[in-house]
Amino acid sequence: MRNERTVRRSQSITPFGVGAVIDILGESFVAEDISRWRGRRELLQAPRIAAHFGVEELRTPPAADVRGSGLPYFRFPQWLFCGRCRRMTRWSVKQEEPGKAAGCSACHGHPQLVPMRFVSVCGNGHLDDVNWVRWAHSDPARREQRQCGRSNELKFEHVKGVGGGLESVRVRCECGASRSLKDLPAPDSMKRLGITCRGRQPWQFDAEAEKCAHTPVVLQRGASSVYFSRLGSAIDIPPESNWSVWGGAASRIRNNDNFRLMESDPEHPLLGSLIDMVAEQEDVSTGQVRAVLEDRLGVKLAEPVEDVSIGDIETREWVALTRPAAAHDPRDNFISKETPFPHPAGHDELQPVADEISRLVDQVVLVSRLREVRVLQGFQRHTMDRVVPPDLGKGERFLPAIEVFGEGVFLSFNEKALADWEAGGEVRGRATTLRSRLAGSMHARWLDAEVTPRFLMLHTLAHVLMRAMAFEAGYSSSSLRERLYCSTGAEAKAGILIYTAAGDSEGTMGGLARLGEADRLLPIITSALVASDWCSLDPVCRESRAQGIDGLSLAACHACSLASETSCVYGNVLLDRMMLVDPGHGFFSDCLGALLDVQGHEVDDAPPA
Ligand SMILES: [Zn+2]
Ligand SMILES: [Zn+2]
Ligand SMILES: [Zn+2]
Ligand SMILES: [Zn+2]
Ligand SMILES: [Zn+2]
Which protein residues have their CB within 5 A of the ion that is ligand 5? Predict the structure, then answer.
């Protein structure tokens, strides 16, 4: 049952988080829930972020390389077959030997068994083996097929002469009953057999099952709708990201009894003496004690834990990004500084373009260090009717999470310029089209986006910028990520953070923040705009009224606007490059016009050949 195959810790949140079905070296497993975790689950220091996700704590998955601990993965499907003798085996936990693949007991040399390709899922998130015994005895066209009482004597056979599709494979019982897999993936195949959902995950006992009214459907186990992870992400920002708060001395100070006394009673008449006592006991300066106390009280007064909502976390990050601190400790987890744009020394022949862009861009902030916390909130399957929590046990008070470190470039946009642009009928119409398509799509269940003109503009710009950074600066496109800050109304926001955040390591490849320096940013923005004005699939792409899943994008395709799967928070939809570059209504149409003028002059000025 439990196999410590190699899964990196960073992968244990995604793509191999709780409930995911994973293939490793020809074997197939499903990741068990956190109540089954063994070994040390290290506390991840991020109280504000934990509170945001509604738990007391975040904990990292146990390291997978320690014997006797690690992440439990359960062999699934449990139905396997032998490629040599075609016998099917319903594998049991008792047959499992640590680190060993399942082998055929009937064949010489015990060749490795192959997992069945199909599984049964329901919209409530349950997962099960296909009931192969029932299937073998269910061919409606064959009278002799009744339940025969034998339960484990099946063969998975090829049928010759009927082509290569599912009709060419069948499950046969010793009694002679058999049925091909041709109708198995039909949406009502289980319903026709009267099979209902067993209401559990493969690793759970029957006693842990819950009532479920859904009819399961059969899918290939590698199909994308077998598993959707629900991931949350937050960036560690001041004051918690400050070394003075999270660092070693600070945590000693926080745990001092006299410090706790001050925390619980900030009006304490002997506050001054208490600070002196803590400083002496912990061998720190009184200034450090004061700083930690101010941070603690500031946190408590400003952020009662119960009030933290999704909007707040985005707003807090926005505030942290748009108002960089004047000074930083090099050990801080969030280090940012604003950089002038355009470059004060000018941009030579590109100056007219820089001037146009600077009318639209409000701020450029370089984030030379950031810490991102990624949280697994749960998972969904099939029609995504419910989010299954990562804990199916007695009520763990934590969520699994990992931290990654990186750096980034943040751009915010001029609110007045945006508001004027958003008043245009064409951009509103395009946004309305996509908004109503999203409302009618299953993807509305996880795509957390208010589809406005500025959202489409920011999202598409983030994509073309990531593509330009990958192209111009040699970043691997999957190492870049987007983060949008977007809202309208009283607390209007419009910003993009492009960042890298890699693995468990401290740093990244370096240099992304430097790309935000005024002299390097302009060529990147201009090349992104040029690229988004011309797609190799134009004019089809440019004029398209529906691209992507459920038509959730307009002018955007893989040749011009799509990003790597790991870079995009929104499933590579809700994109429309006409929001950027359309000569009539693109947000950047004047910039592009200036750029074409400049390039035109370059051609004019060129010496005759
Ligand atoms: Zn065999
Ligand atoms: Zn039979
Ligand atoms: Zn179910
Ligand atoms: Zn295109
Ligand atoms: Zn995206």
Answer: 568, 570
Task: Classify residue 108 as exposed, middle or buried by CB count within 10 Å of its CB (0-12, 13-18, 19+).
Answer: exposed
- How many residues comprise the chain? 609
State whether 503 and 430 are in the same domain.
yes
Banded pLDDT at 67 (limits 50, 70, 90): very low
Tokens describing residue 115? 């997992």
Contact present, 575 and 460 (Cβ < 8 Å): yes
- 404 and 468 fall within a common domain: yes
Question: Does 322 map to a domain?
Answer: no
Q: For 183-334, list the strands marked E by DSSP.
A: 217-220, 228-235
Cβ neighbours around 535 below 10 Å, total: 20
Among the bound ligands, the one closest to the CA of 179: 2
Report the C-alpha gap between 538 and 596 in whole angstroms. Answer: 19
Let me know whether 441 and 468 are in one domain: yes
Q: Give the tens place of pLDDT for each residue, 124-148.
A: 999 999 999 999 999 877 766 666 7
Ligand 4 centroid, distance to 327 Cα (angstroms) = 43
Taking a C-beta distance cutoff of 8 angstroms, is the pair 70, 47 a contact?
no
Structural domain tally of the chain? 3
Q: How many whole angstroms from 80 Cα to the centroid of ligand 1?
A: 11
What is the distance between the alpha carbons of residues 559 and 207, in angstroms, rounded to a whole number? 51
Phi, psi angles (nearest 5°) of residue 71: -90, 130
User: Phi and psi (nearest 5°) for 164?
Assistant: -105, 5
CA distance 163 to 159: 9
In the numeric block, which tokens belong to residue 28?
A: 């197939």
Do 156 and 246 fall within a single domain? no
Residue 375: how many CB atoms within 10 A of its CB?
A: 24
Distance CA 388, CA 380 (A): 6
**Where among 229, 246, 274 does a domain terminate?**
229
Q: Which of 89-98, 133-142, 541-550, 593-602 has the highest mean pLDDT?
A: 541-550
**What's the whole-model pTM score?**
0.84
Q: Which ligand is nearest to the CA of 135?
A: 2
